[in-house]
Amino acid sequence: MNKKLYHGACLYPELWSRDVLLQDIGMMKQTGINVARIGEFAWSVFEPEEGRIDISSFVEVIELLYEHGIDTVMCTPTPTPPIWLSHGHPERMYVDERGTVMGHGARQHVCTNHPYFRERAAIITEHIAQAVGSLPGVIAWQLDNEFKAHVAECMCHTCKGMWHDWLEQRYCTISRLNEAWGTNVWSQAYQRFDQVPQPGPAPFLHNSSLRTMYQRFSMEKIAEFADEQAAIIRRYSAAPITHNSSIAFHVDNERLFKNLDFASFDTYASRENAHAYLFNCDLWRNFKPGKDFWIMETSPSHAASLESYAAPHPNGYVKAEALAAYALGAQAFCYWLWRQQRAGSEQPHGSVVSAWGQPTIGHRQVLEAEAARQELEAVLLETKPMQAEVAMTYSDEAKAYFKTEPHRKLDHRGLVSDFYGRILSLGIHRDVLPEGADLGGYKLLFTPFLPYVPEDYLQRALEFAAGGGIWIAGPLTGGRTEEHTIPTDAGLGELEQRAGVKTVYTYPMDGTGSVGRAFGVSAPLSHWSAVFQPMEGGASVVGEIREGLTPGLAFLTEHRYGQGKIVMLGSMPGGEEGDAMLCKLIRHYTDEAGVTVKSDVTPGTLVAPRQGANGQLVWIIVNMDGRGGSVTLPCQGTDALTGDEVPPGQVAVEPFGYKAIRLNLPLF
């Protein structure tokens, strides 16, 4: 891909006449759109009858776009298999956990593991790659669209056979599976792998190991499909390949992006949920280290379908959203969609242009985002995001454990984004890391909501602490084994032994009147919790339970480990007092770790530190909440857009405003 910032939109030329297409291309150019995504739902256009394939209409579209200075992201159309593939073939269709067989329509209605689907998906992908792979306008590929967005684990007969094969490869013998899963509970022991059920309809709840392992099996299989599709494309095209994913979908993003070339995600976060949007930027930046990520979909105004709609963004928000993405490492910021659809299930969805060809309520927002992109592009291209000194680990596999065991309907996505939001609100520059990421260069590591701590991660985190880092583990971390059973050697397994504590109890604290005190703050304790007692010569108590069922025991401890520390947070402080306690905890260990990449930016405003090849530091400051904000500049600076000198001290930004300031003295 060329070294420039992309501002894009999804285009569906198969839905409109050539005259409308030419009109759209002209308006896109006027609006500043420089990349279009096409083809993701066009299988029935490419192959209206089985075996009759013609890609020529899209070749013409790509060439037209290129002639007008607009590049193309070409998609494979596999999320919407045509009627000839699904009609009369229920064995090819997706089956949900209730045993309901999907009919044709909507999307993702076919099982992606079915061999005939895989065969036809490979054939259509190869034809597309052959037809357009060498065209100069094709700068990237997107596989499918939003894997597992509307469906989860398939329960069809094909998946059942693959499940049994997967189990046999994993456990080798059925006795090992029975031992690992504890299947003597409720007489669930199996004699052969082909007896192990899928977690479909049942009178009560399935074995935890069965449910979690089936999710992991499903995640692996969809990633294998992505690998297969990418391998086909690479035979005909050198353009990089991605997929537009999300942490909301039933995938393991770390595994999914492992064999792809760059990472991208879709988002429809509102202003009120801007912290979740920034969480995604900080995570996607780290799926493919050293490579820019893309935002492949967001709305220029509002998300909507036939059944629901969101409120349109306030004027100015889309500009702030775009600049925050670019500042945090995005190369592209793209909309769904360009022209409003006149038919289908998403007719009310926000777009840049209406179905009748006029600017929509979001059009002005797009123009503002484009003007800001042009103004900041040079500064952004000569710098890159700084690595943070503070990291937080995220795991999609942990999401599977919480789906199996949600306690009182705990939402993993909400838990992690709220925890992240506290770090963000304190002005700390942070990275969100996938589980397998390198921990080098960090000073402070948070590992919340990771029920199973893999041996590899544990060893790397211990090395991090031994080398001088501070590792804060918890809450709800370490209480389950890989097979989703409870450890029998210690409440939190090897983790607690290394942390110098003994887990005395684990129990749900909600409704027990439990109150803990730490950092001079008392707060109610909540969720399923681990209660500690320091080992002799081990950890020291930082947070003590004062009221409830276990007064006098600890919920927060710290233990010297090598040159650093392991901090155990066994319970989640709740309410306003709990929020204050967590913020004090973060500040305390940020200071102790010697974190310098931070600012006193006001909540609702973002500081994204970037660094040039010559070491020059630039702060991109963006107000995200529409209330305006400020930050203290620690040294003399220069406004990168006007050239004006900026003295040390407070710098204000207007509602949804932005600034780019070069720091004249090295700070970090």
TrEMBL record:
Keyword Zinc: yes
Keyword Iron: no
Pfam families registered for this protein in UniProt: Glyco_hydro_42, Glyco_hydro_42C, Glyco_hydro_42M
Stretches assigned to the Glycoside hydrolase family 42 N-terminal domain: 10-372
Domain annotation Beta-galactosidase trimerisation: ranges: 388-595
EC number: 3.2.1.23
Broad enzyme group: hydrolase
Catalyzed reactions: Hydrolysis of terminal non-reducing beta-D-galactose residues in beta-D-galactosides
All residue ranges annotated as the Beta-galactosidase C-terminal domain in the record: 607-659
Keywords from the named record: Glycosidase, Hydrolase, Metal-binding, Zinc
Record-stated family: Belongs to the glycosyl hydrolase 42 family.
Record's protein name: Beta-galactosidase
Organism: Paenibacillus woosongensis
Origin organism lineage: Bacteria, Bacillati, Bacillota, Bacilli, Bacillales
